[in-house]
Specification:
The protein is mostly helical. 47% of the residues lie in helices and 11% in strands. Strands 1-2 form a two-stranded antiparallel sheet. The chain has a two-stranded antiparallel sheet with strand order 3-6. Strands 4-5 form a two-stranded antiparallel sheet.
């Protein structure tokens, strides 16, 4: 580039390569802390920790900065009521740090060990045990508890919900749709609350098979 500029008699103007400020202006100190942390023994390896673990230092520094006087003073937002964008001087938002984190992840990789799925045989065993408890229950308080646990199990398993999401199932809506859809081969589980964009105003309706191919009696437990 310099040679080409000289050909056409242009002045040589390149951005200065330094000096950089002594303070951390682009996330270098956080990157160093992440690298040092990565050398500590981890859960899956005795020689290093996973990127997801050292990533917590990045998140911790970002949260500390944004809640500090510097972060609050540098924060600028613009946009409408539904969507907003923010501008800040957060060092770990720099292009350098973004490239560091991307390269760090590529070099370290990730050892993902997900929890095993619950086999359908286990679900059948749990429901079978609950049916026995239902038969020997001496009062309606005990039966209510057994039915609630059974309904929770079938909704969570057949609907692939997270554990806390099942508690959004609305009892009034459940009875309403059980009565309206008595003769069809599916049931409706209405969730009410902050879920999938809904905000406590409308049901999020999830259809489930009344009886699954494996024999789980969803309608019976919900009723």
């Amino acid at each position: 580039m310099v040679a080409l500029w000289r050909v056409v008699h242009l002045p040589i103007e390149l951005p200065p390569r330094g000096p950089f400020p002594i303070s951390d202006s682009f996330g270098l100190w956080t990157a160093i802390a992440m690298l040092v942390k990565s050398l500590e023994p981890g859960r899956y390896s005795k020689t290093h920790q996973q990127f997801k673990t050292i990533h917590k230092l990045w998140a911790a520094f970002s949260n500390m900065y944004m809640s500090s006087s510097l972060g609050e003073a540098s924060l600028k937002t613009f946009g409408g009521e539904t969507s907003r964008m923010s501008l800040t001087n957060l060092p770990t938002n720099s292009l350098w740090f973004e490239r560091f984190a991307s390269g760090c992840l590529r070099r370290m990789g990730q050892d993902v060990r997900q929890d095993w799925a619950i086999p359908v045989e286990v679900i059948h065993a749990v429901l079978s045990a609950l049916e026995k408890e239902w038969e020997v229950a001496s009062d309606w308080i005990q039966r209510h508890l057994v039915a609630s646990v059974g309904a929770y199990v079938v909704i969570a398993f057949c609907g692939s919900f997270r554990g806390n999401e099942v508690f959004l199932a609305d009892l009034f809506g459940l009875g309403k749709y059980l009565g309206e859809l008595e003769s069809v081969d599916h049931v409706i589980v209405p969730l009410l609350g902050r879920y999938k964009g809904e905000m406590h105003k409308r049901y999020h309706l999830t259809p489930l098979a009344a009886t699954t191919n494996s024999g789980i009696q969803v309608r019976a437990w919900l009723r």
